[in-house]
Description:
27% of the residues lie in helices and 40% in strands. The protein has 153 residues and is of the alpha+beta class.
Amino acid sequence: MLTAKEKMLLDALEARAAQEGIEIVDVEVVGAKKAPTVRVFIDAEGGVSFDVLSGAQAWIGDILDELDPFPGAYTMEVSSPGIDRPLRTLEHFQRFAGDQVRIRTIEPIDGRANFKGTLSVDGDILEVADAGEVFRIPFDTVKKANLVGQIGF
């Protein structure tokens, strides 16, 4: 779940990202209030190359400079989402159905708030199958979710 500041930054970046053929996967603001770090995770068709990263860093920096979201200095990081890619939108969950996920909910469902297993999607209900059990999680109760990285050798 994004904070108001993160949502504002995401909204400002998404229109330009679409023009550039880039997806803004997630935005995080972390660290000290006096010198926060803005992390922007991007993806692109065919993956995120060094050229894609450096090009995106330039226009993302320009937009953040225009917005001036913080009263003082801040650090900006632009990177690929990595092996444990965050899942933020219903479309993200649909795209990665069949993969292993980790989901944390805002409040407990069936006595738990942390789920890990194989993802499927039924409308706006996320289903996580683990050890023969299937947990049904309404999309609007998700606090944080990400893929569970799989490395195949």
